[in-house]
């Protein structure tokens, strides 16, 4: 279990929000669940995250052990990101948020695919 610096309280909701509670972090996790892994792919998401914020959130996700950085061996060689088991465990959370949005917010469309039956 990872330790969060500067906890507001021992409440698990507050502690979770300390990691996931900004408007970009769950969108990056969503994109990784959808198969994106490279910085430039995240930049092309429809929400248009600024590159400085993207770099900061990826660093935060790596330090929280939700994401790991790895190298794609080219050409060209470049950094990429993938969810750890801890990060993948957020899938049901995002599915619940998406389900709520589809049911309660007109004009929304699902971006995430249903979880594969066996190998995830």
Helix-strand pattern: HHHHEEHH
According to DSSP, the number of beta strands is: 2
Query: CATH architecture, please?
Result: Orthogonal Bundle
What is the CATH class? Mainly Alpha
End-to-end C-alpha gap: 21 Å
CATH topology: Arc Repressor Mutant, subunit A
The biggest sheet amounts to: 2 strands, antiparallel
> How would you sum up the global shape?
globular
Number of helices: 6
Give the rounded overall mean pLDDT. 88
**Which residue ranges are poorly predicted, with pLDDT under 50 across at least 5 consecutive positions?**
none
Number of domains: 1
Structure, explained:
The chain has 120 residues and is of the alpha+beta class. It has one domain: Arc Repressor Mutant, subunit A (Orthogonal Bundle), CATH 1.10.10. 45% of the residues lie in helices and 12% in strands. The chain is built from six helices and two strands. The chain has a two-stranded antiparallel ribbon with strand order 1-2. A hairpin with a 3-residue loop joins strand 1 and strand 2. The longest helix is centred in the C-terminal third of the chain and has 14 residues, at 91-104. It is globular and about 45 Å long.
């Amino acid at each position: 279990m990872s330790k969060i610096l500067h906890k507001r309280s021992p409440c698990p909701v507050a502690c979770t929000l300390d990691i996931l509670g900004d408007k970009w972090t769950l969108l990056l996790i969503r994109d990784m669940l959808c198969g994106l892994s490279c910085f430039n792919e995240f930049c092309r998401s429809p929400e248009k995250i600024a590159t400085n914020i993207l770099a900061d959130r990826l660093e935060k996700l790596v330090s929280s052990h939700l994401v790991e950085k790895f190298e794609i061996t080219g050409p060209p060689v470049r950094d990429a990101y993938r969810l750890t088991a801890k990060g993948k465990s957020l899938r049901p959370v995002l599915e619940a948020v998406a389900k709520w949005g589809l049911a309660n917010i007109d004009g929304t469309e699902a971006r995430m695919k249903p979880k594969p039956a066996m190998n995830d």
